[in-house]
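Escalated from tier 1: adenosine-5'-diphosphate holo job.
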Amino acid sequence: MTPPEVIPAAVTEGADSGNGAAQEVLRRVFGYDSFRGDQAAIVEHIIGGGDALVLMPTGGGKSLCYQVPALVRPGVGVVVSPLIALMQDQVDALSALGVRAGFLNSTQYPDERRMVEAQFVAGELDLLYLAPERLRSEATMQLLDRGTVSLFAIDEAHCVSQWGHDFRPDYLALSVLHERWPRVPRVALTATATEKTRDEIIHRLDLGSARRFVASFDRPNIQYRIEPKNRADRQLLDFIRTEHAGDAGIVYCLSRNSVEKTAAFLTENGVTAIPYHAGLDNRTRAENQARFLREDGLVVVATIAFGMGIDKPDVRFVAHLDLPKSVEGYYQETGRAGRDGLPSTAWMVYGLNDVVQQRKLIDNSEGDAAHRRQLQLHLDAMLALCETVSCRRGQLLAYFGQPGGECGNCDTCLAPPESWDGTVAAQKLLSAVLRLDRERGQRFGAGHIIDILLGKSNPKVLQHAHNELSVFGVGTDLRDAEWRGVVRQLLAHGLLAVHGEYGVLTLTEASNEVLFSGRRVRLRRELERVSKSVRAAKPAKSAKAAAVDLGPADAGLFERLREWRAATAKEQGVPAYVVFHDSTLREIAARKPGSMAELGTVSGVGENKLARYGEGVLEAVARM
Ligand code: ADP
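Tier 2 regenerated the structure:
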């Protein structure tokens, strides 16, 4: 990287109060007009020397909460982050803003490390990123003693609480920071919202007296949609082609095998897609991640091994081809879409097999009965979200204990699902399960039970003489796919249970209420093509997105600016978003600034970027 042209420490000279200085840094360094939400209060609190716990959703703007105070307070801000592979990008992004940043982790050559250490001691850095395991070595402690630390930021702080998390032991050791440097303010940040996690962070990191800032976990620019699964790969291709052609996106699958297959299928069909999972060697994984971050419009197909800390702002969609294990997981993964605030889609397909498969994983999981019970509760909450007939966003927020109404930007709001009285259907299905179990001591999976209801005399039915059962052929009023929908919904409502390797169905306490006590069952009608009806319903756009909606001529300029950005980023060896975010390019395309002064007023254009890229941008605008 070329050395920064602006030394932000100078920004603070003559600033009278922490708040005034913070505003000045925000404007001159980052090119933003105002803080968002709690940012101003958090920044002021930390500048004043207070500890803080910050819970904010992905894309909420956590980084500024410690970056701005680090630029205002004397000394170097030390950021503890487990995301070693992303440190270089973070440092590059800060360098492009003219902020002096460095990192220390195990991937560096000793020479490089020594140079960064010397810069730290000499106070020539604004921010230093550290891998958590560094802080377990006395050498690092002594290094920090030799310089001046302005604050400690503990990023991804939920690592301290998650059982079995790779980084947990290193994070647990971070309580030492407070003991050794009691006067240095600490800020712990996470996008994990549950109260349990919050309490454990406070307890483990000794943050009892820290001020807590809990933002709304709503992500209004993300449209949530969950559809019945038929042929997942075809549905995905259709979704990408019609709504997100040329966009960057993440597709999550459960197994390595389906990751590979799906990536190959998309590529064969003209969508550039790369795989990412723990079975690939380190080099391929690192290369694929780097490509995703650097190239525009690439799709990565991945297991959940991918994504933590990926701060690519222009991921336009996150697709799930398999059911996530919990609502927390779903929220975290979908949250990687649309960090830039522009409209994005969280799209998922889900079917009966997902429920059977997840149940099997729970049955086979290690750990005691209590642990398995916990996993089942997580799955139940996820199923409830899938089968809800009310607003998905409202349900998500309620899960995190936050208020929400009808959002107008999820599938259930845009195309409200019809419901029907499924009591008789449920009774037919449950009594088939009951009869097999009680009269013959047999248990079967959903496929076979549906065959019986449909009156199919296939070899398996004949072999067991199931054509002689009184329920044989009583269900011909529904099609096979509709019956699968009934089973899935009964499972989600706890009116039926599924077990073991073969996914056998059994009754629950609540099944008896339907069979014998007149409990009625309302079911959601399965739409064949939910996407189409939702698309037709013209989703409401977030205010911010609407503000930068472009007409055809401006869209042409936007594309031109993207080309300029891709070339510039390549030349400088940084991801495209390090040069400018999409949201900034859109505003430029809409406003067409004619001078450096005018360009400087666009959100996201700070002094350093103006000096570095201003001419290139003005040229591209003038050429239109
Ligand atoms: P988080 O770490 O919480 O996921 P980031 O810190 O990456 O979020 O911020 C998300 C996006 O919002 C980034 O593109 C960032 O530049 C932008 N952003 C953050 N704060 C502001 C602000 N006050 N004004 C304008 N954009 C902001």
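The longest helix spans residues 552-572.
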